[in-house]
Write a structure and sequence with these properties.
By secondary structure, the protein is mainly alpha-helical. It contains 5 helices and 2 strands. Strands 1-2 form a two-stranded antiparallel ribbon.
Length: 166
Amino acid sequence: MQCATHPDVETELGCGRCGKAICPRCLVYTPVGTRCRDCAQVKALPTYNLGTQTLVRASVAAAVVGAGTGVIWWLFNALTYGFIFVLLIGFALGYMISEAVSLAANRKLGPPLQIIAVGGVIFAYLVRTGLLIVVDGWGFDELRLIDAFALLAVVFAGVIAVQRLR
């Protein structure tokens, strides 16, 4: 029998719903077996189905929690010279921001929410750095040493946030 879409391909496969001949290039694996593209109509999992309203709520949550964690990070800034503290800051930032994004998005997952969470982590870093410059009067020389550890915390926090929203 010949494939309905590719007449030059001989096949023994058929759609599990309509019985149309399909070749391996045409078949779609579905939860109930192999189907042709017309019958498959597989929709995305609801966990990954994100609307505009969900993305806006997640973005607002990332911004609010990012600002709050940035202020808290600024308050504890004197302790950021230790490597273990950097890991703890990174874990806390990544966990708190990804949890806020997840809650705002009704526990949905996916790459857009991962990007929003990483944006929240970067926003927390910018809030903390801005407060160090404006309130504490830090200059470039003072920020240069401490920001190496802070950027390590941001990378670690970003990895945690992405993994939690995968």
